[in-house]
Write a structure and sequence with these properties.
Helix content is 27%, strand content 27%. It is α+β, with helices and mostly antiparallel strands. It has three domains: 2-87; 126-203, Efflux pump adaptor protein, beta barrel domain (Elongation Factor Tu (Ef-tu), domain 3, Beta Barrel), CATH 2.40.30; 211-290, conserved putative lor/sdh protein from methanococcus maripaludis s2 fold (Beta Barrel), CATH 2.40.420.
């Protein structure tokens, strides 16, 4: 390839020399033609054929000059093409980082990924100053948390310490297999403490855009057929089917035919059958709260 570049440079120099000669020839013939044309204004001084021959010679020189200019342009493009091909010999990373994996050694034959004989990449480079945390958020908790929200997470390498990142991208699409939505956090790692590939536990904020109800976790009962709470209305017990949401401390979010202020049994159980007379004792933990 170096020899090809040298040959292209030599051809460019030769073309430039020929162009300089053509320019000099045009300048000389232009002077001769202008001199003959000025002299021809006096009758009998210059033969008409001589002036015609000088003009045609000048036209031919100008055509030759144009051809030499095109030759120089073609030689320059050929040299540029070889230089661009040479540039592939130097592999430059698209960003600054740390080489975390090297799969080839000097002298090894390499090529584009997927080509015959190329199984792995040459190098793996990772930037440590800013990391991306990929969080598969369950679809139940995926709504109501916008981009830009600060989220905390912990890693096994630093027990007792809490790190934070900012929600940068939300997929807005749930994976059908895992029923989770990918969310990416951007975390600053200026000190390089966090290592790429580390698993983390994310403290995901759960938010609702509308008020929801919570009952004591012990109030939620479940059987093979249903999940319910026992509500006490007019001194009688009744089962209310519910769906559960987030759990906060000892309270569980519920959705169903319930309303703020309803009285529910602190301990949900199928032994408390519907229609049983129940006396309500308010103890601060058996009524629905928003």
């Amino acid at each position: 390839m170096i020899a090809q570049r040298s040959e292209a440079q030599s051809k460019l120099q030769a073309a430039q020399a020929q162009l300089a000669g053509a320019e000099a020839k045009v300048a000389s013939d232009e002077g001769t033609y202008e001199h003959l044309r000025a002299a021809a204004k006096t009758p009998g001084v210059v033969a008409g054929n001589d002036l015609f021959v000088a003009q045609k010679a000048l036209d031919a020189d100008r055509a030759q000059l144009k051809a030499q200019q095109e030759n120089v342009s073609a030689a320059q493009q050929a040299l540029q093409a070889i230089a661009q091909t040479e540039a592939y010999l130097q592999v430059t990373a698209p960003f600054d980082g740390v080489v975390t994996e090297r799969n080839v050694h000097p002298g090894a034959l390499v090529g584009p990924a997927g080509a015959p004989g190329v199984a792995v990449s040459m190098l793996r480079i990772e930037t440590l100053s800013r990391l991306r945390v990929v969080v598969p958020v369950p679809e139940t908790y995926a709504a109501g948390v916008p981009e830009g929200t600060k989220v905390e997470f912990i890693v096994p390498a630093f027990p007792g310490r809490t790190f934070s990142g900012t929600i940068a991208r939300i997929a807005h699409s749930v994976d059908e297999k895992t029923r989770t939505m990918p969310v990416e956090l951007e975390a600053t790692n200026t000190k390089g403490e966090l290592s790429p590939g580390t698993f983390s536990d994310v403290l995901w904020p759960v938010r609702r855009s509308y008020p929801t109800l919570f009952v004591p976790t012990s109030s939620v009962a479940s059987t093979l057929e249903r999940v319910f709470v026992v509500r006490v209305r007019d001194g009688k017990s009744e089962w209310v089917d519910v769906k559960t949401g987030a759990t906060v401390d000892k309270m569980t979010e519920v959705f169903g035919d319930l309303h703020d202020g309803d009285n529910v049994a602190v301990r949900g159980t199928d032994e408390l059958r519907p229609g049983i007379s129940v006396s309500v004792q308010q103890n601060g933990g058996n009524s629905l709260r928003q």
